TrEMBL record:
It comes from Secundilactobacillus kimchicus JCM 15530. Belongs to the class-V pyridoxal-phosphate-dependent aminotransferase family. SerC subfamily. The gene is serC. Catalyzes the reversible conversion of 3-phosphohydroxypyruvate to phosphoserine and of 3-hydroxy-2-oxo-4-phosphonooxybutanoate to phosphohydroxythreonine. Pyridoxal 5'-phosphate binds at G78, T79, W104, T155, D175, Q198, N239, T240. Its EC number is 2.6.1.52. This is Phosphoserine aminotransferase.
Amino acid sequence: GLTMPIYNFSAGPAVMPKPVIEQIQRDLPNLNGSGMSILEISHRSSLFDTILAEAKQDLRDLMRIPDDYEILFFQGGGTGQFAAAPLNLATLHHAIALLDSGHWANRAGAEAAKLGVAVTTLASTQADHYTRLPHLPTTIPTESYDYLHLTVNNTIEGTTYHTIPQSSDLPLVADMSSNFLAQPYNVTDFDVIFAGAQKNLGPAGVTVVIIKKAIVKPVDHLPSMLDYHLFMTKNSLYNTPPVFAIYAAGLVLKWLKAQGGVAGIYQRNQEEAAKLYDFLDHSKLFYNPVHHADRSLTNIPFMTGDAQLDAEVVETAAQEGLMNLKGHRSVGGLRASFYNAMPMTGVDALVNFLHHFEQQR
Ligand code: PLP
């Protein structure tokens, strides 16, 4: 019979490239003629050495990561890095600065505070319900901070720093979990970039940290699993790494290269996002609340203003194979996430559905 195409608009874990899923299926019983599956091979095997080295090199190529930056693989997700960053880097002033751009910025601040680090919010757009982004004040208060924490893409609120705030006085630690590899950024604008894999990069279980080598130093009394210096000296192999997740991320990186790299996928991400924003901006039923200049390419919240009707849209969409469109409870309404693996046909199907839904009322 006919099978309806399914499109997954989840904010994460999220859509993976189809060719990567198919490659994993082919590889699974017998990886590279080894007679073993990726689920069974040793992280000390030459097979895994190659997987790790290629993943690092492909990421280096894709993001043009210079040699004075290291690529590390951790476990613990973005949340693990909310602790790792202050533990490793807030060692001089025991104080960090924050731009309060929403939920995940607050989570990062709360985790640092829990570890005894002073957290100062330099600007907040909470009063605007985070529908626009906070920016650095022209003069940063005189106290000293070990770094500025920035949430580059706000997954829940649907905002993105398309231009990265800069302050020569402040090292910059960036949470890029939800738009990693979705659009080009200059790695040299940052001291640390981190991202959980489960949106644009691969399965949950591995967290990438890209860090300027010069700021990495040994710190006493750190849990080994969060220790940047230790992981750097051990090439992320201090203990058993998430072997499968690193392998799958490596396949996604090769897929991304075949899409024209970050520049190629950025072009398509812009076209995809523009299609939905254009529909929403002309719709008499749906709207997106975000300030245009700050709109995310990857996470697009929208609503009718009537919670019951929003729920009906989510349910009807699911019946048509358009999955996981429910908005985060703090924003309400709907949210469509267009990560790198979302094909244009998925965006077209969504926009057609919304158009049709509006026409039928
Ligand atoms: N930071 C951002 C921007 C996120 O979107 C998320 C999860 O959605 C996190 C951090 C938390 O990541 P994890 O679930 O990997 O700890």
